[in-house]
Design a protein that fits this description.
Blueprint lengths: L29 E2 L7 H5 L2 H16 L13 H16 L16 H20 L8 H9 L9 E2 L1 H16 L8 H22 L3 E2 L14 H9 L15 H7 L4 H12 L4 H4 L1 H6 L5 H15 L4 H4 L3 E2 L13
């Protein structure tokens, strides 16, 4: 899955910056938004501010940059890419089983059980020994990133769990500001390839899809970060060009937004305006900058403000439900 091996670090463990107090107490994350009224607590919480700030920071870091841009790939980034490569290879061990129902192949449950069985070991290999105390807290976000074993579905809540996992890696000092571009282009983009492979291999249902009126059945954030990549990129301007097949084929490996459109066109049949009405409407917006800002607002309204998504979000010591402290 790594497409520039020559640029990957040599795998030596980089020092762990002391970003947390020595006596920091990690907690196993738990659900905290249990009713509609709890949504107000969530929207004023430290976790909400950290999460939305994290998305905005990485959004800014990759603005106008194609995936092939020359960026620093630290040994720590390399280790998390290798962690994802191990998870990806595990799919080979659990081929789909023959079953009467078309969707929701039950082999996914065995695959996910295997990932959960190995997650602590994978994280021990990826993290500096000084950070191993964080594993019981952060591994839960990683395990929740790939879908639900009971329903065999995947949606924006699972994607959110992975981004929270990345946010936690920054909070414990496993990644830092110099890794911002590589975090999106290598770690998150590899995660996206795994999510797509799982959706296809196990015929996963979309979790809580709004059908054609949502942005996409499965993902949201790659459209935000992907549209940031396209700001001031004359090759895909005006934005309506993202609907053209030759543009998609030429640039899908350079821009996440176009790779998302290419994937949708591969898995959905019929006119694009019918099966992906929101994206079709977006194509009429005059600039990628407006699209990017509009998608961030839409994400806050359609994902982060929806109880069916947030009821599953987990809160611990790194992303706490407590109120965000107001600076005097």
């Amino acid at each position: 899955m790594m497409n520039r091996d020559s640029e990957i670090g040599d795998g030596k463990m980089e020092k762990a910056p002391p970003t947390l107090p020595i006596n920091h107490r990690f907690l196993e994350p738990e659900k905290a938004v249990k009713s509609i009224t709890d949504m107000a607590i969530w929207e004023k919480s430290e976790a909400y501010m950290e999460y939305t700030g994290f998305i905005a920071t990485l959004n800014e870091a990759i603005k106008g940059k194609p995936l092939s841009v020359d960026c620093k790939i630290s040994n720590n980034v390399s280790r998390f890419v290798k962690l994802l490569e191990k998870i990806n290879k595990t799919i080979d061990e659990f081929p789909p089983v023959v079953q009467p129902q078309r969707f929701g192949n039950t082999a996914f449950r065995d695959w996910l059980a295997k990932v959960k069985q190995n997650s602590s070991e994978f994280l021990q290999e990826a993290l500096h020994p000084q950070l191993h105390l964080a594993i019981p807290e952060i591994k839960v976000y990683l395990e929740e990133s790939f879908g639900n074993a009971t329903r065999i579905d995947y949606g924006t809540g699972h994607e959110m769990s992975f981004i929270m996992f990345l946010c936690c890696l920054y909070k414990i000092g496993a990644l830092d500001v110099e890794d911002n571009v590589a975090t999106v282009f290598f770690i998150f983009n590899n995660y996206l390839q795994i999510a797509r492979r799982l959706q296809q291999t196990y015929r996963m249902e979309p979790a809580g899809s709004h059908g054609v009126w949502s942005l996409d059945d499965y993902q949201f954030v790659p459209f935000i970060w992907g549209s940031s990549q396209l700001v001031d990129q004359p090759r895909i301007y005006p934005p309506v060009k993202f609907l053209e097949d030759d543009v998609i084929d030429k640039y899908a490996d350079e821009y996440m937004f176009l790779s998302c459109i290419k994937y949708i066109k591969e898995v959905k049949k019929g006119p694009f305006a019918e099966h992906s009405n929101q994206l079709w409407s977006i194509s009429a917006v005059g600039s990628w900058s407006k699209i990017n800002q509009g998608l961030i607002k839409m994400y806050k309204k359609e994902v982060l403000a929806k109880f069916p998504v947030i009821q599953h979000v987990l809160f611990g010591s790194l992303l706490p439900i407590r109120r965000f402290p107001i600076q005097q």
